[in-house]
Amino acid sequence: MEKLCSSMSFYVLGLLYTTNEKIRQMKRPSLLLIALLIVLGGKAQDFLNQATVNGSFQIDAQLYRSDAAIGITDSSIAGRKIGVNGYGNIIYSLGNFKAGMRYEAMLTPMLGFDPMQEGSGFPYLWASYSTDFIDVTVGNFYEQFGNGLIFRSYEEWTLGYDNSMNGMRVLLNPSKGVRLKAVYGSQRFYWQKYERNNRGLVRGVDAEFSFNEILGSLEDSPLRIIVGASAVSRYQRDADPIYKLPENVGSMAGRINIGLGNFTLMTEYAHKINDPSALNNFIYKEGHALLTSLSYAQSGFGVVLQLKRVDNMGFKSDRAYVGNALDINFIPPINRTHAYSLTGKYPYATQPNGEMGMQLQIHYKIPKGSLLGGKYGTGIALNLSQVNDIARNPIHDTILIGQPGTMGYTSDFFKMSGDIFFRDLNIEIDKRFNSKLKGIFQYMNLLYDIATIEGHAGDPVVNAHIGLVDLTYRLSSRKAVRVEAQGLFTREDKGDWAAMMVEYTIAPKWFVALSDQYNYGHPEKDQRNHYYTASAGFTRNATRLALTYGRQAEGVVCVGGVCRQVPASSGLTITLTTNF
Amino acid sequence: MSWKRTMIFVLAGSCLLLACDKIEPPYMKTPQGGNGDTEVLLKKILLEDYTGHTCVNCPAAAKTASDLQQLYPDQLVIMAVHSGHFAKPQGDPFLADYRTEVGEAWEGFFGTAIKPNGVINRRSNNGNYVVSPGNWPAEVTALLNDPAEIQFEITLEYNTANRKLDIAVKGEFLTALTGEYKLIVCILEDSIVSPQKNSDASAGVTPIIHDYVHRHMLRQTVNGIWGESIAVQPIANSMFETQYSLTLNSQYKAQHCSIMAFVYDAANWEIMQVEEVVME
Amino acid sequence: MIKKSFVFVLLLLLGSTVWAQESVLPKVTIKTLDGKNFNTSEIYNDGKPMILSFWALWCKPCQKELDAFMDNYEEWQEETDVKIFAVSIDDARSTARVAPMAKSKGWDFEILLDANGDFKRAMNVNLIPHTFLLDGNGKIVSQHTAYFEGAEYELYEKIKKLVGK
Question: For the whole model, what pTM was predicted?
Answer without folding.
Answer: 0.84
